[in-house]
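writing this on my phone so excuse typos. first protein, seq and then structure
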Amino acid sequence: MTTPTHMSNAAWGLLLLLGLIWGGSFFSIAIALREVGVLTSVTHRVGWAALVLWAVVAMRGHPLPRSPRVWIGFAGMGLLNNVIPFTLMAWGQTRIETGLVSILNATTAIFGVLVAAALLADERLTARRALGAALGLAGVATIMGWQALASFDPRNLAQLAVLAGTLSYAFAGVWARVMLKGLPPEMAAAGMLTASTLVMLPLGWAVEGSPFVALSGSGFAAIGYYAVVATALAYLLYYRILAMAGSGNLILVTLLIPAVAITLGALFLGESLSPRAFAGLALIALGLVTIDGRVFKAVSPR
């Protein structure tokens, strides 16, 4: 993880914008899932986003990679960063609140620390990161209910699906570092989304039928938002912030997303979350702040 750097006003503005965009994606997916199946929703998300990003690649004049290793990298990233997590989270969202999905999604950074420490020699698990991960996992247990360790609740299956999606994101981060290092961000994202589309289009068509179905205005707008804005454009924005402020600052976006998703869910979907969910969110947020570490640096004697 890159050492956090000072955040300029422009970087803060872009970070807030990304938090709003990704927070709104949970709401738009919930709207789309009223009209299309889970696999179809993911097909639209990756397919249209891939087309937008290839247009960006063409405008910037990037040559197509020729190395088989790069295309294998695209395929792996497509599975780990799109196909698996998008599908699991969309399925989970048909059974639990959008705000709760967004809270569990915030564990991505926590699992990322653990997976990187296990698989990458230069990402060792320091005491501070271990404490942050433990706090985050305690937050997950609080959300699901500690009694879930002793008894099965069908609702927890959806929560476990979302968590499996965040774990897939964590493995995707390691895969990208090993297999796609040095590629322009828009090329990496376009290749990844193309590989995802090649999986999701035939799979979704076989299971749920043609994805090209008549949609209401709200369904069309929802798919357009989460495919073009919250996927294609958000990837470009993500890498822009990464270049400006580093990964240590970028992790803060995971604290902004649930606030947006919970608010939209309450205002427009009639959702409400239990106090246990908010207590879990507080523990996850504390874990992320601990992993980030700058608070400890600010209060420690020099």
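second protein below, same order as before
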Amino acid sequence: MTGTTETTGHRAIADAFARARAEDRAALVVYLTAGFPDPTTSRACFEAAVEAGADVLEVGLPFSDPMMDGPVIQAANQVVLDAGFTLTDQLGLVGELDHLEVPKLAMTYVTIADTRGYDRFARECADVGLSGVILPDLPAPEAGPWLEAASNAGLATVFLAASVSSDDRLDALAAVSSGWVYATGLMGVTGVKGVAHDLTRRLVERVRARTDLPVAVGIGVKDAASAAEVASYADGVIVGSAILRAAGGDDPSGAPGRVADLVRELRAGASRQA
């Protein structure tokens, strides 16, 4: 089996999944965009998510031309970009979350890392307490330079697998993934349709045949019922658009409470206990 690069970040993520497994539930990975709807509320939402039971935080670093983000995440990203909240600001906000004792991973696109410079970006991520990075548009066969920079900084790199991925592609990403493998629950962008469970279940099986890493499913999970279905066959449940809907709205002061309520619902759904 492959995909178990031993970095500090990988070990932190492995521990989080192991704790969830010991409690007979899938790990809950919660996505929020850094700086949305505003920096102060954003920080409070991250804190609320952890207090309510998130095992891992996925921190969206906005990009102007995302390939897999649906309308909810795109709109949140645009709010942050329009406000002039820069990548340096976003990473600074992450640094303010150091007191949250869960792994945090940056979710962004390879253009961001490449423009910053792989070595610099990896160091900056590690310096603010991130355990890893997810770059959904980085093909595993072309990832060598990034993987070297990430490993040197102690970061895990999570790669994405899709139901249409060939066996060769799954072999390639299993060989270089660390932290977990991200199985996409449907074809298309986030926040539009529900998980295609039959296809996704088979994808999880195909990935597990290639790696001992946890397999977490995202794209299409939105409530306790869909979290429960995913938890029946995957090691982790990833939720983004539904969380951002809770964080948005006309009442920013109520955003942390709305996020906490949804995270508690999802955490209950992710439990495998009767």
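The longest strand covers residues 27-33. thats all i got for now
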